[in-house]
Amino acid sequence: MKYFKVSPMLTHKQRVVQAIQEKELDRLPTQISFTPEMSRKISKYSGESEGELFRRLDNHMVMVSLDDTRKI
Fold first, then answer.
1. pTM recorded for the entire structure
2. Quick check: 29 and 21 in contact, CB under 8 A?
3. Could you tell me if residue 71 is inside a domain?
4. SS3 string of the chain?
5. Closest residue by Cα to residue 27 from 46, 58, 3
6. Residue 37 belongs to domain spanning
7. 35 and 51, same structural domain?
8. How many domains does the chain have?
């Protein structure tokens, strides 16, 4: 079964959905994350802010912690 094709370019959401559905992709979706300590170390080493670091990683999925709820 073919998993890669050249065109058209997919959005992050389309790429993740097609991967779940085992359809052809233009490239694999990625998700890279670090512990807060490692994120600070990598940011310091690279000279980029943590926000810029995560933007450059171009993750396809965003992790949301259910423990981060706030009372309004």
1. 0.61
2. no
3. no
4. CCCECCCCCCCHHHHHHHHHCCCCECCCCCCCCCCHHHHHHHHHHHCCCHHHHHHHHCCCCCCCCCCCCCCC
5. 3
6. 31-64
7. yes
8. 2
- Residue-wise pLDDT for 38-52, tens only, equals 999 999 999 999 888
What are the CA-CA distances from residue 8 to residues 3, 24, 52, 59, 61 (Å)?
14, 11, 27, 19, 20
Retrieve residue 62's tokens.
């965003």
Tokens matching residue 7: 């065109």
Q: What is the pLDDT of residues 7-65, one digit of tens each?
A: 468 899 999 999 999 998 888 998 888 898 999 999 999 999 988 888 888 888 876 77
